[in-house]
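Exam prep: given the inputs below (a chain plus zinc ion), describe the expected output before reading on.
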Amino acid sequence: METVQSRGLVLYNRPYREKDRLVKIFTEKAGKRMFFVRNVEKSQRLAQIQPLVVGDYIFKLRQEGLGYIDEVSVETAYPKLQGDIYSLAYASYVLALADASIQDGQADPALFQFVTKTLDLMEAGLDYEVLTLIFEMQILDRFGTRLVLSECCFCHRSGLPFDYSFVYDGVLCPDHYEQDVHRAHFKPNCLFLLERFQAVSLEELESIRLSKETKADLRQTLDTFYQEYVDIHLKAKKFLDSLDEWGSLLKEKK
Ligand SMILES: [Zn+2]
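Solution:
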């Protein structure tokens, strides 16, 4: 077994036999790994293996099979984010997406940085809906997809009222609409903003202010892209969608 010291982010844990747990941790140096924690109720470990805990870990890793946690020094568990059911639902979706986007055991420090930075900004009170949209947009390449939103697939002109073609995986200008009779017509500012989100750095985010309506349009557009290109069904996303419906019902009643 190899001893590895790395930062890590707990994705989830689940009971295993009577007193033990399996914990999935996204480690910065060794990718996603499953760890075995024995007799968890009697140890200090329980609080350290909850989803969203970020810490410094010393692990014992094997080539295959379960690893073991030697030491943990918890940096944060994002208390503010966890204290609100909405931000928690969005953060849980970000975790589930990160989990689904790469293979176990495949190191991806850039993704690790991106996920923890996204969570840091949610914790700092920035708009978690916008952060999630940006996260989804920028993680698409891990699922093997890159959308061409900035220029027409045929003539490469930009700044025109584009439609989207799922045949060409990109936008079409009015001169080339006829190339795809089944092209999708999204609201123009949606494609424009999603294109910006592909490249925006999270630091720039503080200057982005979007109306509720625009965010709802973006959510719908991005959901369409995800259905078409990613086609995964995450429980965390279902929960988030139901929470949105349920939340808006409550707000209407007020
Ligand atoms: Zn064109």
